Amino acid sequence: MLTQESEKYGYAFLCVFSDFKSDHPVRYEPSIQKGATMSLPKDPVMLMSYLNTQLRDNYDSLDSLCADLGIDKASVISSLAAIDYHYMPEQNQFR
After folding, report:
1. What angle do CA 85, 59, 40 make, to 5 degrees?
2. What pLDDT score was predicted for residue 84?
3. Contact between 55 and 93 (Cβ < 8 Å)
4. Which residue of 25, 28, 31, 49 has the lowest C-beta tally within 10 Å?
5. 29 domain-assigned
6. CB 47 within 8 A of CB 70
7. pLDDT string in tens for the chain (95-residue length)
8. Number of folded domains that form the chain
9. How far apart, in whole angstroms, are the C-alpha atoms of residue 66 and residue 77?
């Protein structure tokens, strides 16, 4: 059951409840607000971690990630270059 706190802070999760009279699970999937966007992490190390995870799991290149998320590739590259991380297209990640 969703608590007021989880609704207030917008936690997204899937709860599966068991119906004890039958073995059919009941799913609760909270709705995510339409048009809600996630801002990129400001901390460069967190940004690098987030981008590398996205590149590994969802995108085949930095260009496709930037185009899909609507972010400026040059600003991402310069932010991570400041902490000596550079995009390696062969590995599709920042190192």
Report:
1. 55
2. 98
3. yes
4. 31
5. no
6. no
7. 445 544 544 444 444 444 445 555 555 444 444 444 568 999 999 999 999 999 999 999 999 999 999 999 999 999 999 999 999 999 999 99
8. 1
9. 11
pLDDT of residue 26: 53
| 3-state secondary structure string across 59-94 | CCCHHHHHHHHCCCHHHHHHHHHCCCCCEECCCCEE
Would you state the structure tokens that stand for residue 49, as one six-digit string?
A: 């971690």
Residue 51, in any domain of the structure: yes
Phi, psi (rounded to 5 degrees) for 87: -75, 130
55 found inside a domain: yes
What pLDDT does residue 95 have? Answer: 97
CA 69 to chain centre: 11
37 within a domain of the structure (yes/no): no
Print the domain residue range for 84: 44-94
